[in-house]
Amino acid sequence: MYAFYELCGSVGVAELEKKAIILRMFPLSLIGKATAWLQSQSNQSLIDWKDVEMKFLARFFPSPRI
Question: How far is the CA of 43 from the CAs of 21, 32, 38, 48, 63, in angstroms?
Fold first, then answer.
């Protein structure tokens, strides 16, 4: 995830715009099961970046695995 944040941060935009860029770029950073997971989520279930981040990490990096 760190590399993803670095890439998004390199765009050089205001903080509010950065969150919009992160949301747009996130699907492009996924492959395989992660892409399938994102596509299976309803649009209403992923409201903002914090919500996407929490659900993604819970799905692919649950606390017992860390």
Answer: 17, 20, 10, 10, 25
Please give the distance of CA 48 from its chain centroid, rounded to a whole number. 9
pLDDT for 66 equals 59
Who wins on pLDDT, 30 or 1? 30
Q: Quick one: what percent of the chain has pLDDT higher than 70?
A: 95
Domain boundaries, the chain: 2-65
